[in-house]
Prior knowledge:
Layout: H1 4-8, H2 16-24, E1 32-45, E2 51-59, E3 68-74, H3 81-97, E4 101-105, E5 112-116, E6 130-143, E7 149-163
Antiparallel strand pairs: 1-2, 1-6, 2-3, 4-5, 6-7
Amino acid sequence: MATLADDLALTPNVDANEVENEMKSGGIPTEGYHHAILDGYREIKADSGTHGRELTFLVIAGPSRGLKVKDAIWSPAGHDAIKDERSRNRIRLLAHRLGLLTKVMNPDGKTATYKPVPGKNEFSDAFGAECIIKVKHKEREYQDDKGNIKKVKDANLDFEGVFMLDDPRVKDVQRGKAADVPKSPPPPPKDDFGDI
Length: 196
């Protein structure tokens, strides 16, 4: 049987301030900027039929180290041109900042275009990519199995959400080492069922 000392796991030294900060946020990453890696990816579908991608980020530094943030990015639904372009722009932005796209300066020297990075075709190809994420909290209600309405706080990315490590806006964010945090196994390769 485990003793209290075993459960406390106080060696090596545990930072009491980090414990306090983590528990203050309810076990979810605190709001603000965090050094993270892309730790998970899966395709999702809304009840409306809209296709999306759920990205999971693992925080690798600071008081929220070891906690995860999931965020969905939705493909254009085809109902509203303005909303569809906004969806595309968010996908483009995140794909660039996670290393799936690169920016190439146009001959005019003023504008740039995105170009695909060879061999990187989906967010699963960016598994393990380091970035800085900006977390926000959102409260939502749900009904428990007894019919009671409960409130819970979720951690999500803000709309811009992901920043490259060299972005000047995140230069002061505490950094960690990805190797120091247990990660999820990489996603399995996609099977096109071509051998059937």
